[in-house]
Amino acid sequence: MNRKIAIGGDHAGFEYKNDLIQKLRTEGYEVKDFGPFSDASVDYPDYVHPLCKAIEQGEFAQGILICGSGNGVAITANKHQGIRAALCWNEDLAALARQHNNANVLALPARFIPFDLAEKLVSIFLNTEFEGGRHQNRVDKIACR
């Protein structure tokens, strides 16, 4: 298992991001914070694009993005051909994102889920394996190349 995680988001996800970084580091993950670095209003694509490029270049196997709704960061991330970002707000979605879609970025809606649930979703996402098999053929058809 790759223990290098990329994390970023926007001002609405700033507090969750910082708390998740601490938790992940205590669990032995190497975490790179792509920002933002305060809760001042920012444009999330400025942080999402560098994070996704780093994943596409193989620096990180997985990433976590956090904004208010999770939608903005997920939409932006999914513009990258090598990214499969999944917006998750419950445990089943986090598991299925990995099992069936081989998602490599978890998008979280900080304004709509409590922090303890965000922690659970991150744990599920990072510890669930892709099932492959019939799902691999579908995943292979996602990118527009």
From TrEMBL:
Family listed: Belongs to the LacAB/RpiB family.
Protein name: Ribose 5-phosphate isomerase B
Record-level GO BP terms: D-allose catabolic process; pentose-phosphate shunt, non-oxidative branch
Active site, renumbered: 67, 100
Gene Ontology molecular function terms on file: ribose-5-phosphate isomerase activity
Residues noted as binding D-ribulose 5-phosphate in the record, renumbered to the chain: 10-11, 68-72, 101, 111, 134, 138
Recorded superkingdom: Bacteria
Pfam families (alphabetical): LacAB_rpiB
Keyword Isomerase in record: yes
Keywords: Isomerase
PANTHER family, A to Z: DNA DAMAGE-REPAIR_TOLERATION PROTEIN DRT102 (PTHR30345:SF0), RIBOSE-5-PHOSPHATE ISOMERASE B (PTHR30345)
